[in-house]
């Protein structure tokens, strides 16, 4: 199976990155990718923000933007899956090319700009999805030309909220102009108030997460922590892609957009650890950014993450990375004498502060 996956990845890497992305989704939809099914154990099973997860490793938003491959992705070994981002109206996103492999750096730069088919289409797919076997969430976005970007998040939640297990407010994408301005205290508080009002009207209460940027300074992070603890948020996802280009070697290093993959690991983990300190265990954190091994996932957990997400590393290692990471996490939990993931959360935080 590994040999077949290696060949498949080699072929995809000879193709335009965005076309390769689409082809990988098609392969999943048509059952051409061997999938391990649900992976769990007594140590790996955990609960985050009320969600019962078979394991703490999730798929980050951005891979299945339009919720077309949910059935396959929920059988790929992940403990939870996040699709989107969805905006109220369909939009084409930024001009191509807008996705770049940085192979030497094991990284990716994208400037998609929330390209998606819109909340109506995505909501219909979410409504029709088979229930289970793992929680499925939706990343909420705003239209580029919206007169009320803050209100867009509430509008997407109103349409799609009844059909997901959690929702993520994404104010941290660098590819929609001035979107990150919504991370300030006043703007974020007002935006979240609108989202929480919609959530209160849903027939079933779902957790709402906030995804933040890795390029915030300590004062900005303190503001976000304060808002998060008073707004009714259920968790923070740390972090989205970065605008930093420090230390990159690949030819595409100067492309505009958000950088993800291995170079983001240290920066995002430091933000995670600081947030863990600022929130003092009162709010679950989900660590994402540069996770490409069990060692990376373990470091995120020990820095303060109750769960972890990955995406870009699959560009280079394929979907077999998922069971490999989980096997390694199981081994590290056992070696440390931890009965479960929650017992290890934050045990190595001080090393990152």
How far apart are the first and last residues' alpha carbons, in Å?
41 Å
Measured on Cα atoms, how large is the radius of gyration?
A: 19 Å
The CATH topology label is TIM Barrel
**From the helix content, strand content and strand pairing, which structural class follows?**
alpha/beta
The number of helical runs is: 12
Largest sheet: 8 strands, parallel, barrel
Q: What average pLDDT do the residues reach?
A: 96
User: How many distinct folded domains?
Assistant: 1
Q: CATH class, please?
A: Alpha Beta
Determine the strand fraction and express it as a percent band.
15-25%
Query: What is the total tally of β strands?
Result: 13
Name the shape in a single word: globular
CATH superfamily: Aldolase class I
Question: Architecture, according to CATH?
Answer: Alpha-Beta Barrel
Element order: H for helix, E for strand: HHEEEHEEEHEHEHEHEEHEHEHHH
Helical amount among residues, as a percent range?
25-40%
What does this protein structure show overall?
By secondary structure, the chain is α/β, with parallel strands linked by helices. The protein has one domain (2-352): Alpha-Beta Barrel (TIM Barrel). 37% of the residues lie in helices and 16% in strands. The chain contains twelve helices and 13 strands.
Distinctive features:
single chain; 353 residues; alpha/beta; TIM Barrel; eight-stranded parallel barrel; three-stranded antiparallel sheet; 12 helices; 37% helix; globular
Write a concise synopsis of the structure shown.
This protein has 353 residues and is of the alpha/beta class. The protein is built from 12 helices and 13 strands.
